[in-house]
Amino acid sequence: MQSIRSLTTTSALRGLVLAGALAAPGLAQAENVNLISADGTVDIVGEFVAFDENTYVIRTALGELRLSATRVRCEGAACPSLESGKAEADVILAGSDTLGQGVMPLLLEGFAGVLDADMAAVVDGTNLQAELVGDQGFGDALGSYLVSSSASDDAFTALLDKTASIGMAARRILPAEARALRDAGAGNMIDPQQEHIVAVDSIVVIVNPENGIEKLTMAQVGQIYSGQITNWSQVGGRDMPIKVVGRETDTGTAGIFYSAVMGQEQDSWQFVNGITIASDNNEAAALVNENPGAIGFVGYAFQRGAKPISLVNACGLTMSPDAFAARTEEYELQRRLYLYNREDVDPESKEFLDFVLSSDADALIRKAGFIDLGVASQEQPLDGDRARSLLDPNVDAYEGNVMREMLGTMIDYERLSTTFRFRTGSSRLDERGAIDMERLIKHLEKAPEGSKVMLVGFTDDVGAFDSNRELSETRAQQVLAELQTRAGDRLDGIELTYRGFGEVAPTACNAEDRGRAINRRVEVWMQAAR
Questions:
Q1: Residues in CB range of 165: below 8 A, 6 or more apart
Q2: What are 207's strand-pairing partners?
Q3: How many C-beta atoms surround the C-beta of residue 526 within 10 A?
Q4: Judging by DSSP bridges, how do beta strands 334-341 and 243-247 pair with one another?
Q5: Could you read off the pLDDT of 340-393 as tens digits, one per residue?
Q6: Nearest residue to 331 (alpha-carbon basis) of 216, 207, 203, 171
Q7: Buried b (16+ CB within 10 A) or exposed e, 455-489
Q8: Distance CA 378, CA 10 (A)
Q9: For 340, which of 93, 234, 236, 259 is 20 to 30 Å away at the CA?
Q10: pLDDT in tens, 178-222
Q11: Same fold: 91-194+342-366 with 201-328
């Protein structure tokens, strides 16, 4: 089996730290610089040679190394002035290729349309350079935009070095990264004015369209990637070797996937010999489509005709990678896609961010194949998975009565995708709550007068059953109060109520921290007036 460190560029560079520290004595100390990534995994000392095309060139005992300024920051007296050396554009976005390649081209087109501008775009490798000209191309230049697509880690390095004004990340900023930026004067990176959720995404496990497999357990997926399962016949498929397609671990997509199927500790990840490492989502999908025995994982927007499969969690719950499950964040391999900016963000970048975060961008996000934060609805039929779970005969009579009470209530309502979540033992909403609240109000404003909306609370299973039901009602009541406060008289024609059902109807495993966090929620049910 292979260690993931042998597969990644980041870990290869990590091995150069000692080499840099033992650089030849002849290197002039005054000319030495230190190149460091935001998370500290790259830390190289060498003699500064040049800064060319947004790339540092340094000399070490192993020879000259070239590292993109979007991946590392430079420390030392010989470091160049980034204000003069950085790529030329009015607005520079750097980071996750999931956002940079997947959705930014369409968002820039949409932004140009709002400005009544013409956009001329040039793609050079992983970089997209766009120029906007007003009056449909006949007016003045409105601005230039550079999108540099690589990995989520690079978003925070670029913000730290001011080589980008907007960072793109397929994961939330890490505490160490936030502290480094705060200490550098960038502000509070988790403040709502600096941290922005632009979409949600499912990481989809894909197989070749010819493969008859429809679902796998999370454990089986982990065993496939670690080499414990090597043939499709071992999981109910035909006799065919499994070809495993993976990604570099410094990408947001891979980090979430490997943590979910192989455990949180990266040092323990061991990979099957012969794993193929795809450079990005597009290549991963192409490799799976080309090989009948292949398996891979990609962001929701990058399936490219490959066959998505459902996953079964440790509690036996089947999870399908559909848009509604992603919006409710109840699909285990889902994530939020973020944009970040420094506190001292420039007006041009702020204007673009305001557009991306508006409802005007929702259709563009959907067109790109991603899942916007708009409100969707879904019926709750008696023959559905949720209704069947509430009829479980293997529960005591007291809990069964609550389950049947919920069943009798929910069949008259559709569920909206808006779902509010809480920290453990708290009635405080998470960072997405404020965004969803305003979108929900705008959605409900369009409902016919006389429609009914119920805020329905749930908890994890930590604590006593009755206490959890009381807590679920408290949380539902709190969300209702906040909804009424924010809406003012905008929802006067809607009947608003709340209920709480405690720990019944979990949507994830209560055995894990992440599952319990998913289960601590307030759902929104709606019965539209006829």
A1: 91, 92, 93, 159, 341, 342, 345, 346, 348, 349
A2: 295, 307
A3: 20
A4: unpaired
A5: 999 999 999 999 999 999 989 999 999 988 899 889 999 999 988 899 889 988
A6: 203
A7: bbbbbbbeeeeeebbebbbebbbbbbebbeeebee
A8: 43
A9: 259
A10: 999 999 999 999 999 999 999 988 899 999 999 999 999 999 999
A11: yes
**What would be the CATH architecture of the domain defined by 201-328?**
3-Layer(aba) Sandwich (3.40)
Rg (CA), the chain: 25
Contact 221, 258 (CB under 8 A): no
> Of 219, 224, 94, 73, whose CA–CA distance to 155 is shortest?
94
Query: Per-domain residue ranges for the chain?
Result: 41-75, 91-194+342-366, 201-328, 375-527
Upper half-sphere CA count for residue 422 (Cβ side, 13 Å): 21
Mean pLDDT of 486-490: 95
Distance (Å, whole) CA 353 – CA 363: 16
What the block records as the tokens of 118 is 């013409």
Residue 8: phi, psi to the nearest 5? Answer: -115, 145
Residue 1: name the closest of 224, 222, 227, 221 by CA.
227
Strands 141-150 and 166-169: unpaired
CA distance 439 to 453: 15
Q: If one looks up domain 375-527 in CATH, what number appears? A: 3.30.1330.60
Q: What gap in Å lies between CA 434 and CA 485, rounded to an integer?
A: 12
